[in-house]
Design goal:
Blueprint: E1 12-18, E2 21-27, H1 32-43, E3 52-56, E4 60-63, E5 85-86, E6 100-105, E7 116-124, H2 134-141, H3 147-155, E8 168-174, H4 176-183, E9 199-204
Antiparallel strand pairs: 1-2, 1-9, 2-8, 3-4, 4-7, 5-7, 6-7, 6-8
Length: about 200
């Protein structure tokens, strides 16, 4: 009897150390442009020292603006980036469930092709959605949820109104409690935390 060993490539894991704890997440192979771009920025230390500059409870926490590094408490944030955008890689199998990692972008009226900001991202915190409420999002965004996706929204929660509109390119595998902790911080103008929530370091592991 012969035993054939098949090499299976493991998904890329990223570890993000923040002032509120550690978040581990994977990057999807199915969104190669976003995966390779994020890995490139991480390898350059791009995210080290940046802030989660926009935090909205029961919705999401957003970071990746290079202008947030050493930014004064009065500086407006959210418009920075690496100087380029990425074409959308919106896949129906990846939804905005709790812990999803997605790319931020400019509004629809300025960005009809849903191109992603080159560095800004958000983690979904969201709320629980009973399946009876999901029909409206299916109709509005032209999508059809699988049974598994409906269960995820019913149990984990998320932000289904963003499905089909933003590129989801990864998900948290450890550290959902850290997302919860960050989502509860006090915020001021522009949904910026009053006390800085900083990304200490990001590494590929």
């Amino acid at each position: 009897m012969f035993c054939i060993l098949v090499s299976v490539r493991a998904q890329q894991i990223v570890r993000m150390e923040t002032t509120h704890g550690t978040i581990d997440f994977i990057l999807y192979d199915e969104t190669p442009k976003h995966k390779s771009n994020f890995m490139k920025l991480v390898s350059e230390g791009y995210y080290d020292g940046l802030l989660f500059h926009r935090v909205i409870p029961n919705f999401m926490i957003q970071g990746g603006d290079p202008e947030s590094k050493n930014a004064s408490s009065t500086r407006g944030l959210g418009n920075g980036g690496p100087g380029y955008t990425l074409s959308a890689e919106i896949k129906s199998q990846f939804i905005h469930k709790k812990g999803a990692l997605a790319a931020a972008r400019q509004p629809d009226n300025e960005n009809p092709k849903y191109r992603s900001n080159g560095s800004q991202f958000y983690f979904v915190q969201g709320s629980v959605y009973p399946r009876k409420y999901l029909t409206r999002f299916e109709e509005k965004n032209g999508i059809t949820y699988t049974e598994k996706q409906k269960i995820d929204y019913e149990t984990l929660g998320g932000t289904p109104h963003l499905d089909g509109l933003y590129t989801v390119f990864g998900e948290v595998i450890r550290g959902l409690d850290v997302l919860e902790k960050i989502s509860k911080v006090k915020t001021g103008r522009g949904d910026r935390p009053i006390e800085d929530v900083r990304i200490i370091s990001v590494k590929l592991i």
